[in-house]
Specification:
Layout (H helix, E strand, L loop, with lengths): L11 H12 L3 E5 L17 H20 L5 E5 H5 L3 H16 L3 E8 L3 H11 L2 E2 L6 E2 L5 E4 L5 H13 L3 E7 L6 H4 L2 E2 L2 E2 H12 L10 E7 L7 H7 L3 E5 L23 E5 L1 H4 L4 H17 L1
Parallel strand pairs: 1-2, 1-12, 2-3, 3-6, 6-7, 7-10, 10-11, 11-12
Antiparallel strand pairs: 4-5, 8-9
Helix pairs in contact: 2-4, 5-6
Length: 300
């Protein structure tokens, strides 16, 4: 196993375990900023419309992190919500990631990247590491973990896994997602069972590369809360992987249905909530309630 760059940072799984135990939380704050819904006054410091929108996004995200962040262990930044603003949006993404780190939160970049190997390697540089140029190294986002689409196959996934291993970061592969249309593809039968089970096996076969001292692996899986009937089987297939679980709250998933997803450690499940916290009348209270419910479930 390669050493992380610099050889100092613990693996992502161990950093997550430490935060989960410290904060007694398995909650990840989803941040999906919509520029159309921002307060116009929040972007007064900008210049062009894109710069003003980006400034408004940063102020909105910082406020949300300050209010709901103490109940969480991580933030999940939806890259598309920043990238649609062009270069100012990418700058806002970096500032938001910095604000999350200052609040002691891990940063998950949600871009669901998946491409041919040469492009996948470039995504790894952009999200985890840096890019060599004749003028020096250019740093990337420095995310603690990213989401990845494994449907192009292992040769496209491995460059992202290499980059995650070098950076002591995590990688969450789409296995059985929370959107209703997931069944159109991920539930298709194969000779060995549904396609999502084949993806789970792909993850499990490589989980050792990102396994920490805790026994959990940072090569995790995105597993939706909206289809709880699959959770037990997926945990059976991926015993060491951390599950990133969207779909609780606005999409209809329920905390009480997540019990089969948990492995031997409370940090084996990381539940991401976006609208149910950000759009709540009191985001602080909404995050605290969800944190408490998850911790109680894991403790049973």
């Amino acid at each position: 196993m390669r050493q992380p760059l610099g050889g100092l940072s613990p693996p992502f799984a161990d950093r997550l375990v430490a935060l989960v135990e410290e904060r007694r939380s398995q909650l990840c704050l989803g941040i999906d900023p919509d520029p159309a819904k921002l307060d116009p006054a929040s972007g007064e410091a900008g210049g062009s419309p894109a710069e003003r929108a980006a400034e408004g996004i940063v102020q909105h995200c910082r406020s949300l992190i300050e209010r709901a962040g103490p109940a969480c262990v991580a933030v999940k930044l939806q890259l598309a919500c920043f990238e649609r603003l062009g270069a100012p949006g990418w700058a806002a993404l970096g500032r938001t990631a910095s604000a999350a780190r200052e609040a002691g939160l891990l940063v998950l970049a949600d871009g669901k990247r998946g491409d041919v190997p040469v492009s996948a390697a470039a995504y790894g540089q952009a999200l985890f590491g840096s890019t060599a140029t004749p003028w020096g190294e250019v740093g990337g986002l420095g995310a603690d973990a990213v989401t990845a689409n494994p449907l192009l196959g292992v040769d496209a996934l491995d460059p992202l896994l290499d980059a995650a291993e070098d950076a002591a970061a995590g990688l969450f592969c789409l296995v059985r997602t929370s959107n209703p249309g997931a069944a159109d593809v991920l539930d298709l039968p194969t000779p060995d069972g549904p396609l999502f089970e084949r993806l789970a096996t792909l993850v499990a076969d490589r989980a050792g590369r990102l396994t920490g001292q805790s026994g959990l692996s940072g090569l995790g899986a995105v597993v939706g809360a909206t289809e709880p009937r699959h959770l037990g089987r997926l945990r059976e297939l991926m015993p060491r992987s951390i599950f990133l679980v969207p779909g609780v709250g606005a999409q209809g998933g329920r905390v009480e249905d997540l019990r089969p997803a948990f492995g031997d450690h409370p940090a084996s499940v990381l539940v991401t909530a976006s609208r149910s916290i950000a759009d709540a009348p009191d985001p602080i209270a909404a995050a605290a309630r969800l944190r408490a419910s998850l911790w109680e479930l894991a403790a049973d």
